[in-house]
Amino acid sequence: LFRSLGGLAVGLGLVSSWCGTGVNRPILSEIVDPTRRASIVALLSAPEGSSGALFGAPVVGLLAEKVFGYVPLPSKTEPLAMSDELLRDQAANNKFALSNSILWATIPPWLLCALMYCFLHWTYAADVKSVKQRYQQVELADADAGGDHGVHHSKEGPNKPVDEPADVRRV
Question: Model confidence over 102-153: pLDDT tens digits?
Fold first, then answer.
């Protein structure tokens, strides 16, 4: 049991970081205006990175104590009011309480993330289409106005390479 749970924990640790770099940032680079990408990525990264640090330990502690019955053991300097057998039983109960509280502080947020990524899967194509239409409207307005307002996009959208002039050589 320990090996299988350990393997699952290592697997989660290896793939859980893919969401930010493999999903969130590529999607944001396609559906967010290039002039606002840095702000949007920062607005996404700030709560994403700080929520675990701010809420993780307190939620685990509250669940362990209030839901699963964690009771702090007496310190080594305090006089023992419990027998060794009671101490072992309480330590085992505390391990159970901590493991379950970590489980319940981890699984529901990951299930919520999975649900949100499912919704994203259903709306992504429409969002990309909407962004491409918006860029085409901006390009038409720029062409009618005779200027480009400093924004250069290809005809295929904001993330496709812009055709380079013939006199530009790549090194």
Answer: 989 988 988 898 898 889 889 988 988 988 888 888 888 877 776 555 555 5
Burial of residue 15 (number of CB atoms within 10 Å: 0-12, 13-18, 19+): exposed
C-alpha to C-alpha distances, 163 to 87, 128, 138, 160, nearest whole angstrom: 73, 21, 18, 9
Query: Rounded to the nearest 5 degrees, what angle is found at the Cα of 26, between the Cα atoms of 49 and 56?
Result: 15
pTM greater than 0.85 (yes/no) = no
| Torsion from C-alpha of 16, 21, 22, 25, nearest 10 degrees | 130
What Cα–Cα distance (Å) separates residue 73 from each residue in 49, 83, 103, 145?
Answer: 32, 12, 22, 75
